[in-house]
Structures are given as structure tokens and as C-alpha cells.
């Protein structure tokens, strides 16, 4: 009984693999190796050396990180101030998105909804027609006892649908 298959006859060429591994074009792990220090560490080290020259070694070791963070915050605030001075509209409320119509307080009691909807449709004012239809639906829901007011609960959750 023969238990080998044709795939078992393949032999690994270790010399070719060693050649590929020694070739820097195939060294894909080089992107995964992190450098010994990053940019922040380099800046911190340079800043620490400057403080060491000016104030001495003890002060530089004790406060260089704190001073570097304060300088970074001041730099960020300076950038924000500069942008604010050049483009103050970025920090103001935009009037571009203002509504093209006025918002009015409405009452849903004593309004002739079918007449108002017909008049709005005759003027082709569909926004007004939809608004009146919504208010009419709200009145029907309130007067048809589909919603019950529970005064002991806050206004947000004080209404419950009645029925099933």
C-alpha cells in the first residue's frame, strides 16, 4: 500500500530561500521595525539639552516634560488665535442655513383644516398643506383618545398610546 502522493515528492530548495532572505528587496519586516525614538522623543531630548545648558541638569530632568507640554498647548492656542483672527466666521453661527420661512406658534383648536388645506393646495403651497395636515392629524389623535396624558410623569414621557 502506497501512502505517498505526488505532492510529497517536492523538495524545498534551501539555498534559493536563503538567497531570497538575504536580498534586501524581499525584507518585508523592515517596515515593521520601529525606530529607536520618535519625533516627540527627539524634540523632548533636544529641549532637555537646551534646558540643561541654561538652568542645569536637575531643573532640566525635573521639568522638561512639563514645560514641553505647556509650550505645545501655547502653540496650539496660538494657531487657534491666528485662525480666529484671519477667519472669524469659522467660529460664528452660520446664517446660511436659516429657514426660508417664519416659524409661528399655532393652535390646533378652532382651525378649519380642510378649508386651509384646500386653499394651500390651490396656491400650490405644499409646505403649508403638509403642515396643516400634520396639525389635523395631531388634533384627531388627541381628541380621539389615542393618547392619554399622565400628569405624574415628565413632559417627555408623559404621553402613552392607548389601545392594545
Question: How would you characterize this protein structure?
Answer:
The protein has 164 residues and is mainly alpha-helical. It is 51% helix and 4% strand. A two-stranded antiparallel sheet has the order 1-2. The longest helix has 30 residues, at 57-86. The two termini are 75 Å apart. The mean pLDDT is 78.
Shape: elongated
Strand ordering within the main sheet = 1-2
* Structural class label: mainly alpha
Quantity of strands, as a count: 2
Strand content: under 5%
In DSSP terms (H or I, runs of 4 or more residues), the helix count works out at: 5
List keywords for this structure.
elongated, 164 residues, mainly alpha, 5 helices, two-stranded antiparallel sheet
SSE order and pairing:
Layout: H1 14-22, H2 39-55, H3 57-86, H4 113-122, H5 126-143, E1 147-149, E2 159-161
Antiparallel strand pairs: 1-2
Helix pairs in contact: 2-3, 4-5
In short:
With 164 residues, the chain is mainly alpha-helical.
Amino acid at each position: 500500500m502506497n501512502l505517498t502522493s505526488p505532492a510529497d515528492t517536492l523538495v524545498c530548495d534551501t539555498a534559493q530561500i536563503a538567497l531570497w532572505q538575504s536580498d534586501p528587496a524581499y525584507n518585508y519586516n523592515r517596515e515593521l521595525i520601529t525606530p529607536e525614538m520618535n519625533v516627540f522623543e527627539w524634540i523632548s531630548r533636544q529641549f532637555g539639552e537646551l534646558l540643561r545648558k541654561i538652568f542645569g541638569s536637575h531643573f532640566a530632568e525635573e521639568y522638561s516634560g512639563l514645560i514641553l507640554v505647556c509650550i505645545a498647548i501655547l502653540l496650539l492656542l496660538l494657531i487657534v488665535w491666528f485662525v480666529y483672527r484671519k477667519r472669524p466666521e469659522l467660529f460664528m453661527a452660520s446664517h446660511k442655513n436659516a429657514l426660508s420661512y417664519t416659524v409661528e406658534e399655532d393652535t390646533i383648536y378652532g382651525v378649519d383644516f380642510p378649508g386651509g388645506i384646500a386653499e394651500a393646495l390651490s396656491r400650490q403651497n405644499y409646505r403649508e398643506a403638509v403642515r396643516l395636515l400634520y396639525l389635523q392629524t395631531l388634533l384627531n389623535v388627541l381628541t380621539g383618545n389615542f393618547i392619554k396624558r399622565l400628569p405624574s410623569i415628565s413632559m417627555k414621557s408623559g404621553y402613552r398610546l392607548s389601545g392594545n
